[in-house]
Amino acid sequence: MEQLTRKDLIEKWRNFYLSKGHKEIPSASVIPENDPSVLFNTAGMQPLVPYLLGKSHPLGKRLFNVQKCIRTNDIDEVGDYCHHTFFEMLGNWSLGDYFKDEAVAWSYEMLTKVLNIPKDRLAFTVFKGNEQVKADEYTAKLWIKQGVDKDRIAYLPAEDNWWPSMDLTGPCGSDTEMFYWTDNNNKAPKKFNPEDKRWMEIWNNVFMEFNHTTDGKFEPLKQKNIDTGMGLERTIAVLNSYDDNYLTDIWRPIIKLIENLTGKSYNDFKKEMRIIADHIRTATFILGDEHSTLPSNTGAGYILRRLIRRAIRTSKTINLPKGSLSKIALEYVSEYKSDYPELERNKDIIVKELNNEEEKFSKTLEDGTKEFEKVINSIIRKREFMQKQNPNAIVENIISGKQAFRLYDTFGFPIEMTIEMAKERGFNVDKNGFDNSYKEHQELARTTSAGMFKGGLADTSEQTTRLHTAVHLMLGALRKVLGENVHQKGSNITSERARFDFSFDRKLTDEEIKQVEDIVNEAIKKGIDVQCSEMTLEEAKNSGALGEFENKYGEKVTVYNIPGYSKEICGGPHAKNTAELKNFKIIKQEASSAGVRRIKAIINF
């Protein structure tokens, strides 16, 4: 097979789905808009939730894109050959149009005809069925119809081949996964064994055909959807016969830069260089996003800070010079700016925040070293006390697992650093105890993530929808009161409140807050119908609709208009009439970042 670059694979994907009547949609921000169920967009389907639930998309029923994604439930696995926190997801969707027959046929055509994968290196899984839903024999027969041997098809349970989970209510369905044989020295066995790690999953088709009701029934959906996802980084690696994702063209310039900055070889420090390369790429995309989040101690900002600090800790083990992280970030900006121009626009923010975090964390490491000395001294004092009581008492020079984990969790000390420093002082570390504490922490994090990442379906309740409409009115009011230089910088809406970030460089006065509230409430009292129309991007611009025009849009867009108060390009959903909002109040304002203010507001109070 031919050697593929990142751009090669994207172009093949684009041309194939254009040939099948699909329209390309832009990648959404990595920070989800109005979806409190996740910290980041973890899949291409998340920004499409309203359309998967039945809303009409302005570009039609067949869509595809390359989506920026971030998944952080396996941060500590990064450093191996295949885990990443940021990745690009190739996706295509049918919104109530074609279904299993076309999805399977086109997937097989893409794999064997476009990517030229020999069919003897492919295998597939389908849902094996249970008491609630029958086995997906239909999809298995479709694969066989394409020429797949039945021995290369495995039936797996819901935890493997059902999305999102049989425990969750709402739209769902079985999926079929596609696997590639990665061992270049041995032929793939005739019978597919999903437990054999040499089989690598490269693509997944979700058949969204059921609605799981609150009373436990799986009822057929009126609109059946196809939702697919192919991880770009992993696919390029396996198709180029690399057993290490970091050998592809995506990472080569970064690894070379780290080697030059440290004078060390990738072959000798693979784990360390992978961690730095991965985490700084993710930090670059978060900081450079059109809805940029800054390092903090909560939410997405906490994840960002954790990634940067893990990269800083790791950089010290290979003597990466101070200030190098921002140099690595600028290399990513250069590499990706043609596809994501927001990185170039925000490169000063990226550099500033990475340098700030590096400066802050250096102090944290100093504090951690002091804490390490306290641990050592406490063990020494305990031994001296015990031996005074009993000269034959034995107190071993061992740092407990819990103490080592506290140094890791609170002060950012990798266990390797603690072990090395302890050895220099003639002490050992209870590594098993540390591992147990670490597993407990990881399990707690995964449990938390399971709630935060439980499926990515946005809250589309009536109250959230009304708050979304209130945000439109609020932006219009802010522009009337503060001037037309005010633009949206991000929002997060739950059923309780709306959080809205906008460009403005000072605190609003009490009078200005009241003026904004009065304008919004005036619109509510008038009971104005919210108008929705589809038009070309040029028509939307000419009509005066607000939008982030520096970002990519499709050929057609949806415009929501509240005459006299708001007109914006938006995916919705919205209230039908402003009277549904009842009342509006701003409950808090604060600084979000330099030149950006944040307002929190409620309705119907």
Descriptive key words:
alpha+beta, 9-stranded mixed beta sheet, 4-stranded antiparallel beta sheet, 18 helices, globular
Please give a structural write-up.
It is a single chain. This protein has 605 residues and is of the alpha+beta class. It is 41% helix and 20% strand. The strands form four sheets. Strands 1, 2, 3, 4, 5, 6, 7, 8 and 9 form a nine-stranded mixed beta sheet that branches. The protein has a four-stranded antiparallel beta sheet with strand order 12-13-18-17, covered by helices on one side. Strands 14-15-16 form a three-stranded antiparallel beta sheet. Strand 12 (488-493) and strand 13 (498-503) form a beta hairpin. Helix 8 (270-287) packs across helix 10, helix 12 packs antiparallel against helix 13 and helix 16 (462-482) crosses helix 17 (510-526). The protein is globular.
Q: What's a concise summary of this model?
A:
The protein has 605 residues and is α+β, with helices and mostly antiparallel strands. It has 18 helices and 18 strands.
List the helices and strands and how they pair.
Blueprint: H1 6-19, E1 23-24, H2 49-52, E2 62-70, E3 86-95, H3 100-114, E4 122-127, H4 137-145, E5 153-156, H5 158-161, E6 162-163, E7 170-181, E8 199-212, E9 218-231, H6 232-239, H7 252-262, H8 270-287, H9 299-317, H10 324-336, H11 342-345, H12 347-389, E10 398-399, H13 401-411, H14 415-424, E11 428-429, H15 431-452, H16 462-482, E12 488-493, E13 498-503, H17 510-526, E14 531-536, H18 537-542, E15 556-562, E16 566-569, E17 584-593, E18 596-603
Parallel strand pairs: 1-2, 4-5, 10-11
Antiparallel strand pairs: 2-3, 3-9, 4-7, 6-7, 7-8, 8-9, 12-13, 13-18, 14-15, 15-16, 17-18
